Amino acid sequence: MTEVLGQWRCSFTGKVILLCYKRIAFQKAAEEVKHLTTVPTDEEMLAIYSLYKQATVGDVNTERPGMLDFKGKAKWDAWSKLKGTSKEEAMKLYIAKVEEMKVIYGMAE
């Protein structure tokens, strides 16, 4: 059986159903993080960015930005630290981090 949930097409057989629901939870978390009542710290934002990139792209696949691009280097370095983490594990960690931030900062109505 195949069903479209959000932007994901899910085939409901064995392990696939679990991964599909993880992707839906990941997509929901990616939307929710935009509606926190307070902007998270730079460190938290780097964690969210790097986990999102690892979950959606995988291992860093670009050159490290130049020496004057401080923000770009910080983002690249955070993502690079996750090298070898599976997309599925990064999704799980991303969802957990967003849930933690929702408790700390609350959600805008």
UniProtKB/TrEMBL annotation:
The keyword Isomerase does not apply. GO terms for molecular function: fatty-acyl-CoA binding. GO terms for biological process: fatty acid metabolic process. Keywords: Endoplasmic reticulum, Golgi apparatus, Lipid-binding, Transport. GO terms for cellular component: endoplasmic reticulum; Golgi apparatus. Signal peptide: none annotated. This is Acyl-CoA-binding protein. It comes from Callorhinchus milii.
